[in-house]
Amino acid sequence: MGAKTGYADVILRVLGLRPGQGYIDGTRYLWCEPDAGVRLLLHAYTDRDLATAAAEIIRGWKDEEPRALWEQLRAEGPARCPGGPTAREVARWVILPGWDVKGTGCGFFRGPGGISSGKHQRRALTITGAGARVESLSTLPAAIHSDAREIDPPTLPPGTVAYMDPPYLDTTGYAHGLGREAVVEIARRWADAGALVCISEAEPIGALVADGWHKVEITGERKGQRRTFSRQQREWLTLNRAPSWVPSVQASLFGGA
Q1: Residue 238 to residues 93, 134, 180, 230: CA-CA distances in angstroms?
Q2: Least confident of 75-89, 171-185, 207-221, 232-246
Q3: CB of 7 within 8 A of CB of 1?
Q4: Residue-wise DSSP of the chain
Q5: Cα separation, 248 vs 70, whole angstroms
Q6: Residues paired with 145 in a beta bridge
Q7: Beta bridge partners of 162
Q8: What is the rounded CA–CA span in Å between residue 199 and residue 11?
């Protein structure tokens, strides 16, 4: 839920960054993610052996009957990541939700309703492709934590960016909540430590704007299909520093308010 695929490039531009910059310049990451399934995939980005082992497990499923495999994996319950991920659990969570591990937001497996069990050859190729995608993940230097509220950042070096994508108010529900007060507290904590802080929301964060933070609407800059499943149709960024770029706003033809 809430993938920022359609807004990724414009968010980077507002922050004065560019796609791929963190990968090529030795940037280190701290990922705070409460969802165990997402954490499993993030771990695969940091551990080449884990990604390779998960890919091999996925390839071993290519001859399984689609519905039976999907039901078997689903019956194992929610994602599990206690004490660290296993290759088997990473593989299960790549296949089960139908996520695209490249981050494009397009599922390669959506369960029995998404890929016909009669098209066995197509299914086998899809599983093989999923394994290849996992194995080709870029290995990034990152620490992974389950709760951003527990992180107390030290004085940070110049160039540090803290990006927050919390659950939006009054929109599609998330399994893990983070109230507006907690969002504001975390944002201020990282700003005080020296980071450029950026928060995505359906509206500007009023408490921060009142403190002099900046707001930028990027709704019209979305790439790809527009949201249809959620009441949240607008996209705002709230930043503690002036944006490097803002989208142009079309003036009214007759100068009306």
Answers
A1: 32, 33, 13, 21
A2: 171-185
A3: no
A4: ----GGGHHHHHHHTT--TTHHHHTT--EEEE---HHHHHHHHHHH-HHHHHHHHHHHHTTTTS-HHHHHHHHHHT-S---TTS--HHHHHHHHHTTT--TTSSS--S---TTTS-TT-HHHHHHHHHHHHHHHHT-----EEEES-GGG----SPPTT-EEEE-PPPTTSS--SS---HHHHHHHHHHHHHTT-EEEEEESS--HHHHTTT-EEEE-GGG--SSPP-SSS----EEEESS--S-----PPPTT---
A5: 46
A6: 32
A7: 197
A8: 10
Please give the model's pTM, rounded to 2 decimal places: 0.80
Residue 159 one-letter amino acid: G
Whole-number pLDDT of residue 256:
54
What one-letter code names the amino acid at 130? Answer: A
50-67 pLDDT, tens digit each:
999 999 999 999 888 888
Segment 55-81 shows an average pLDDT of 90
Distance CA 244, CA 257 (A): 27
Bridge partners of 164? 199
Contact 169, 202 (CB under 8 A): yes
Task: Give CA–CA dist 64/62, Å, rounded.
Answer: 6
Retrieve residue 168's tokens. Answer: 């939006």
| Sheet of 214-217, strands arranged across | 161-164, 196-201, 236-239, 214-217
C-alpha separations of 225 from 98, 106, 118, 236, 254 in Å: 18, 11, 29, 18, 31
Task: Confirm if 112 and 61 have CB atoms less than 8 A apart.
Answer: no
Q: How far is the C-alpha of 93 from the C-alpha of 37, rounded, in Å?
A: 6
